[in-house]
Amino acid sequence: MSAANPALPPAEQRWPGERLGLPDSGARSIGRPGRRIGALAVDWGLSVLVSVAFFQYDGFATLGIFAVTQIVFIAFVSGSIGHVVFRMRVVPLKGGWIGAWRPILRTLLLCLVIPALIWDRDQRGLHDKAAGTVLVVR
Questions:
Q1: Position 88 pLDDT exceeds 80
Q2: Do residues 25 and 14 touch, judged by C-beta distance below 8 A?
Q3: Is 1 inside any structural domain?
């Protein structure tokens, strides 16, 4: 992905991801908040189920299960189970393979919650910005 219009001021940006060279809708467009929240609910719900089954529900176990599944699935499937269900994937902003460090950094920041709640005008959280990734529609 190349930045098609990196100098566009916020007032001239017509949709999230335009300045990153991403389309307004369809494949490779920015994953919108509804899909993101749905994917997070699926991932967290599955983590809770595993935590209940094996740890009689422990908050730290749930967070650990969530983190491990995020790292493994993003590294090998380009998205968590929730991302796959909601037809999204995590890709490096500059293209290529996501590698190992990006899913780890992204997930650690996601688990801190606050970085994921702070978005830029392209609807990328600080966790995605730090990892150099973007969540797009499949």
A1: yes
A2: no
A3: no
